[in-house]
Design brief:
The chain is α+β, with helices and mostly antiparallel strands. The protein contains three helices and five strands; from the N terminus they run αβββαββα. It binds adenosine monophosphate and zinc ion. The site of adenosine monophosphate has 12 residues, from loops.
Length: 135
């Protein structure tokens, strides 16, 4: 393996994958531990770690491919909806440090959110935080 990255090895065909889509820039394949039927990962063939180190021109192209694959899955599975998830850093649950987008098909009427345990926001704290973060 060139750089110890399992997704680079998949992109180079050194490790097999259940491929759904491929072009010069990206590869899309089924997640080996799916959240739902059709759970698919879209990766750039080039190695980047996450959202912040992926050049923006490449990121735009990846997102267009995510749209294309998601549209295909919705039709071909078919599914009723889907989540697009992209984890950055171990703190966010990223286990493979090669940037990837999850497309998670959802079925039925009210599938609910994927494990976001939200808590009620406090208006004054939100206002202060927005003031601190405003770009
Ligand atoms: P993340 O937690 O966002 O880093 O997601 C990594 C995903 O990669 C997990 O959902 C794993 O199930 C999936 N995964 C790990 N190894 C493979 C593999 N060899 N083929 C397909 N999916 C994989
Ligand atoms: Zn890689």
């Amino acid at each position: 393996m060139k750089n110890d990255c399992i997704f680079c090895a998949i992109a180079e065909g050194e490790i097999p994958s259940f491929k759904v889509y491929e072009d010069d820039l990206v590869l899309a394949y089924l997640d080996i531990n799916p959240f739902s039927e059709g759970h698919t990962l879209v990766i750039p063939k080039e190695h980047y770690t996450g959202l912040l180190d992926t050049p923006s021109d490449i990121l735009k192209e990846i997102v267009v491919r995510v749209q294309k694959v998601a549209a295909h899955l919705k039709e071909a599975l078919p599914c009723d909806g889907f989540n697009v998830l992209q984890n950055n850093g171990a703190a966010a649950g990223q286990t493979v440090p090669h940037v990837h987008f999850h497309i998670v098909p959802r079925y039925g009427a009210g599938g609910g959110e994927i494990a976001f345990a939200n808590h009620e926001g406090k208006m004054d704290a939100l206002a202060a935080l927005a003031a601190r973060l405003r770009m």
